[in-house]
Design goal:
Blueprint (H helix, E strand, L loop, with lengths): L2 E10 L3 H17 L4 E6 L11 H4 L6 E10 L2 H13 L18 E3 L6
Antiparallel strand pairs: 1-3, 1-4, 2-3
Amino acid sequence: MPYVQAFPLAVPEDRKEDYRKMAEEFWPYFQKHGAISTTECWEDAVEDGQHTSFPMAVKRRPAEKVVFSWILWPDRESYEKAFAAMMQDPELEGVEMPFDGERMMWGGFEPIFAA
C-alpha cells in the first residue's frame, strides 16, 4: 500500500481559488519527487467540537474553512526523501501560501486497511 502524507489546515474563505490554484501548480513538483496522487478537500460538513474537532485542531478563525489534504507516496522512504529534498529546495523559498502555515500540521501515515 502507498504511504500517506496528510495535512489539515485553515484557509480564508475568500482564498479558496488561490488555494486550489496553488495545489494544482504544486502537483507537478510533488510528482517530480515521486508522489503517486494528491487530494485536496474543502470543508463542507465540518462541525465545531466541544473537546476536539478539525476546527479546533487548525485553530480555525472566523471566515476560514478547514482543508484536509493528502498525498500518496510509493512508500515511507520515498516520502522522507522527497520531504527532505523539498525542505532544502531554494525554489520553495519565498513562495506565498494563501493560508497561515504556522497552523498547518502534517504527518506520515502507514495504511493498515484499505477497501
